[in-house]
Amino acid sequence: MHWIEGIVQGVLLGGLYAQYALGMALMFGVMKIVNVTHGDLVILLALIGISLADFTGIGPWGVLTTLVPVGAAIGWLLQRAVLNRVVGNDPLPSLIATFGLSIALQNAMLVVWSADTRSLSGGGLQQASIEIGPLFVGVLPVIVLICATVLTGGLDAVLRFTRYGRSLRAASADVEAAAMVGVNPKAVYAAATAIAVGILGFAATFQAMRSTVAPADGPFQLIYAFEAVIIGGLGSVWGAFTGAMILGISQAIGFRINPGFGILAGHIVFLAVLAIRPQGIFQRKS
Amino acid sequence: MSYRVERMTLSGRVAILAGALALGAIVSMPWWASQGLIRDVITLACFIAVAQMWNMLAGYGGLVSVGQQAFVGVAAYAMFVMAQSWGINPFIAVGLSLIAPALLAVPIYLLLHRLEGPYFAIGTWVVAEALRLVATNMPMVNGGAGMSLRVMTQFSAHERAIAGSFLAALLLLVTVGGSYLLLRSRYGLALTAMRDNPVAARSQGVDVQRLRFLIFVAAAIGTGFAGAVYFMVQLRITPPSAFDMNWANLAIFIVMVGGIGSIEGVLIGAVIYFFADRWFGEYGASYLIVLGLLTLMTALFFREGLWGLWRRTFDAPWFPTRRTLIQVERDVP
Amino acid sequence: MTTLLSTHGLQAEYGDMRALHGIDFAVEPGETVALIGANGAGKSTLLSAIMGLLPVAVEMVKLDGKPVGGSLPHRMVQSGVAIVPEGRRLFAGMTVEENLQVASEHAAAPRGTAWTKERVYDLFPILREKARTPVENLSGGQQQMVSIGRGLLAQPRVLLCDEISLGLAPRVVREIYDVLPQVTAQGTALVLVEQDVGLAQRASQRLYCLLEGRVTLEGKSSDISRDDISAAYFGASHALD
Lengths: 286, 333, 241
Ligand SMILES: Nc1ncnc2c1ncn2[C@@H]1O[C@H](COP(=O)(O)OP(=O)(O)OP(=O)(O)O)[C@@H](O)[C@H]1O
Ligand SMILES: [Mg+2]
Prior knowledge:
The complex is a heterotrimer.
Chain A: H1 2-31, H2 38-56, H3 60-86, H4 91-113, E1 129-132, E2 135-138, H5 139-161, H6 163-173, H7 175-180, H8 185-210, H9 218-232, H10 237-257, H11 262-276
Antiparallel strand pairs in A: 1-2
Chain B: E1 3-6, H1 10-27, H2 35-60, H3 69-85, H4 90-96, H5 99-112, H6 117-136, E2 147-148, H7 157-184, H8 186-196, H9 198-203, H10 208-234, E3 236-237, H11 239-242, H12 246-258, H13 263-280, H14 285-301, H15 305-313, E4 324-327
Antiparallel strand pairs in B: 1-4, 2-3
Helix pairs in contact in B: 1-7, 2-7, 2-10, 2-12, 2-13, 3-4, 3-5, 3-6, 3-10, 5-10, 7-8, 7-10, 12-13, 12-14, 12-15, 13-15
Chain C: E1 5-14, E2 17-27, E3 32-37, H1 43-51, E4 61-63, E5 66-67, H2 73-78, E6 81-84, H3 96-105, H4 117-123, H5 125-129, H6 140-153, E7 158-162, H7 170-184, E8 189-193, H8 197-203, E9 206-211, E10 214-220, H9 226-234, H10 236-239
Parallel strand pairs in C: 3-8, 3-9, 6-7, 7-8
Antiparallel strand pairs in C: 1-2, 1-4, 4-5, 9-10
The complex binds adenosine-5'-triphosphate and magnesium ion.
Magnesium ion binds near residues 43, 44, 86 and 162 of chain C.
C-alpha cells in the first residue's frame, strides 16, 4: 500500500519533470547544446506568472495561457540573441554563454523579486482530490500528468507528421545536408527553442501552483530535466517522458525511505543508469 | 645548416624569476605581512589553483566541468575528518586528504566520460549535488550542521600563518608550476594538439582517452588541494559552502575572461576576479549580474579572453610552451 | 541565351589553406558539364563554394548574371541550385519517403514540369518499394538514388552532382546515368563531378579539369583527346614522360 502510494506520487511528480525534460530533449536533439538557463527560465516564467496573477487577478488558467506564448517569445529571442552564435561542434561556447546568462538571470530575478519563496494560488485546485480505489490523489497532479502526456504525444506527432518536424529531424541528422535541401537551420533552431521554452510555460504554472518558487531554484529544475533526458535516452520525446517518470518514482520512493534521501535517490538512479545502460533506457546502441 | 629547438624566451625567463620571487614572498609573509593580507593571498592562491585546474580540463582536455566543487568539498571534508575526528596533524591532513579526490575522480570519470560534451558538464554538476546531499545526510561529518576545525586552537596564530603561507606557495607551485612543466614535457605537445583538434590528435597517435582521464584525475587532486587549504584557513565547513556552485562560477569566469588555454590568462583573470569580488562583492546580486553577463559576452564575442587580446599585440609569453626553431649556423654556399 | 551559373576568379579557403585559386566556370541551361580532376583537386570545394557552404565574395558566383556568392545554402536552393553531395548525406533515422519529402517541402518554385515523388519513383522504381524503409537500411546504390531524388525534388535549374558513381556496381552506375538525359530534357543543367574520366566525357557536352585548385583544361567533351586530359589531370611534369 505504502509503496503503491509512493509510485503513484512518483508518477504524478514525473508529470512535472516531463514538462521540464521535453524541451531539453528537443534542443539537444537538434542543436547538441544544453541550455543551462533551462531551469532559470522555469523560475522566471513562474515569477512572471505569480506577479501577473497578483496585479491583474487572473486565475491559473489565464496565467497558463499567457506564459506559454511569453515563454515561446523568450525562447525565440534567446536563440536569436545568444544560442545561434554558439551552436557548433565545440560544446564549450554554448555552455559558457548560457552558464554566464544563468548566473545573471538568477541574480536579476533576485533583484526584482527578492529571495522570498512565492506561489500561485490555484483557487482551491491545490486542495481538491479524487478517490481512485483505495487511494486519494490530488486533482492538480493528475492534471499535470495529463498535460505532460498530451504535450509529449503532441510533440511526437509534430516531429513525425509535420513539415516542421521533418525539417527538424533532418537538421538534427545532418545540419549541413539539411541546408543543402533548402532547410534554413537558424529558423529551425529558433522554432525549437521557442517550443522548448513555450512548454516551460506549462511547467512554470504548475510548479508555482503545486509548491513554491524562489530565484535560486533554477539549477535544481535543470538537473531534474537533465536526469530525465539521460535516463530515458537521448533523442526521443517518449524517452524523456519515461525518464521523467522513473526519476519521479525514484524520488518519491526515496522520500518515503527518509525525507532527506528523496532527491539523492533520484541522483543515484541516474548514476546507476549511466553505469549500466549509458545510452539510456530507450535508446538502442548506435 | 643546424638548428636548435628553443622554448625559453626572455619574457619567460623574467616571468620565472618573478614567479620564484613571488613564491618566496608568500612563504615569508608571516614575518612581514598582516593577518588580513595573509588571508587574502591564501584565498587568491586557492582561486588561481581551482581556475588553473579548470583551465587544464576545459582548455586542453576538452572536458568542460561545472562540478569541480565536488573535489573542493570532498578534499576539505576529508581533511576535517582526519584532523578533527582522527587527530592527525592538520597540516599533514591537508596532504593526506588529497587521496579522497584522487580516488573519487576515477569512478566519476568512468561514469561520465560516456556523455557527450555538454552533457558531461551537467553530469559533473549532478555528482557535486549528490555529494552535497550525501554530506548533508552523513552523521560522520555532522550532517547539515557542518564541522569546525577546533584542533587548530592548539597552534598559535603565527604558527598557523606559517603553515597557511607555506601551503599557499606549495599550492601555486604544484598547480601552476606543475601545469607549466606538464605543458613543456613531451605530453605538452600531445595536450596542445588535443586542444587544437582532438580528432587530428587521435589520428597522430595521441591516446586522447587516456590523456583526458589523467588530466581529470590530476585536476581533481589540484582542485582538492585548494579546497583543503581554503577550508583549513576558514576553520569551518558546511555542505553548502564546501560544495558551493560558486567554485565553478569563479573558475569559469577567471579562465574565460583571462583567456582559456593559457596559464597567463588564469593569473590575469584571478587577479581581476579577486579585486572585483573585494570591491564590488558588497553589491551582491547586481555584481553577480555583471559577472554573469561578462562571462556571456566573453563566450559570444571574444573567446580568447584578455590574454588573447594582449597576445595579438605583443608576443611575449610569460609561460612559453611553444617550440621555436632557431637557426644557429648559416648555410655555407 | 544568358549563362545560368558562372564563377569568376572564384577563391575559397579552409582556414589558412586556399583550396581554389581563381576558378572561371560556367553552365548554360540544359547543358551537362563534367568536372574531373585527381583526388584533392578541389572539385567538391568548387561545388561547396557555389552552394554557399564556404564563405566566398559575392561577385565570384553569378546566377542568371546576378551576383550571389556567399548566399546561404537554403537561399541557393530556393534560387534553383541544388546539390547531390559527396557521400550522399541522407537523413539517417528517416524513411526514403521522408527524405524526399523534406526536399520537396523546401524546394524552389518549379519551372516547367515539376518533379514529384511519383516522377522520382518512376525514374528509380526500386525506391517506390522501399518508400517506408529507413535510409540507413538501403544499399549504396539505392541511397545514391534517394540522394539524386532529393536533389531533383528541390526543383533545380542546375543540379550539382558530386561523384554519384562512387562505390557503385557498374550496372547501378549505368542505371543512374541512363536517367540523366530525362533530367536535362526539361532544361535542367547538370554538373557532374566524376572520377571515371571516360564516363564523364561520354555523359557531358563540356568538360573542365581541375588540378590543385586551378582549371587546367576546358573544352567540348567530344573534342578533347586522352593525352590532353592526362596532361591536365596530372600536371605538365607528368605529361612530359
Ligand atoms: N573540410 C576541409 N577542411 C580542410 N581542408 C579541406 C576540407 N575539405 C577539403 N579540404 C582540402 O581542400 C583540397 C580540395 O579538396 P576537395 O575535397 O575539394 O577535393 P576533390 O577534388 O573533391 O577530391 P576527391 O576526388 O577526393 O573528392 C584538398 O587539399 C583537401 O585536403
Ligand atoms: Mg570530392
